[in-house]
Design a protein that fits this description.
- The chain has 159 residues and is an alpha+beta fold.
- The protein has one domain: Alpha-Beta Complex (Cathepsin B, Chain A), CATH 3.90.70.
- The chain contains five helices and five strands, in the order βαααααββββ.
- It has a five-stranded mixed sheet.
- Strand 4 and strand 5 form a beta hairpin.
- Helix 1 crosses helix 2 and helix 2 packs across helix 5.
- The protein is globular, with a radius of gyration of 18 Å.
- It starts with a strand and ends in a 15-residue tail after the last strand.
Length: 159
């Protein structure tokens, strides 16, 4: 298995959407369109209430957060990652730093994260891997695997 971290430029608050754009379109230039799709999806009545319930702090207004997020430069959060996983029907795994120190976590946002929170062994979603090791910038990770060796041949002295 090999992991390649793709540097996502622009430390301007758009890095989450640039990383998603790179993963989906293989180009960061579509980040504004990806942001628009995710924010529009967040207005869907089926996911609006679960997103608000899980991710808003007391006193925050969901509609105001959507207006803020619609603007270029607004930093994307777990709420937008969960919405993107649902929208693009994929798992988004995010390795990131949290807290004040060297604490890291690995979060999985499955497409059904808002309903079930965990995938089962029957799930076979495509995955997007995000890396945020400094706590202030998302990068994209590409995970590749080599073809597994052929184990169908038995070694009984013959090569």
């Amino acid at each position: 298995m090999e992991v390649e971290v793709i540097s996502i430029g622009g430390h301007d608050g758009n890095c989450l959407f640039r990383a998603l754009s790179q993963a989906i379109t293989r180009n960061v230039d579509q980040h504004a369109l990806i942001r628009q799709y995710v924010v529009n999806h967040m207005t869907d009545p089926h996911i609006e209430e679960p997103l608000a319930r899980q991710f808003l702090q007391p006193g925050q207004a969901y509609a105001e957060e959507l207006v803020r997020m619609a603007h270029s430069g607004a930093w994307g959060t777990d709420r937008e990652i969960a919405a993107a996983a649902h929208l693009f029907n994929c798992s988004i795994l995010c390795f990131s730093r949290y807290g004040d120190g060297n604490k890291y976590c690995l979060q999985q946002f499955a497409p059904d994260f808002l309903d079930f929170r965990v995938c089962t062994t029957e799930c076979h979603h495509d995955s997007i891997y995000l890396v945020n090791p400094w706590g202030d910038h998302y990068e994209l990770a590409i995970v590749t695997t080599a073809d597994p060796p052929n184990h169908s041949q038995h070694h009984n002295g013959e090569e």
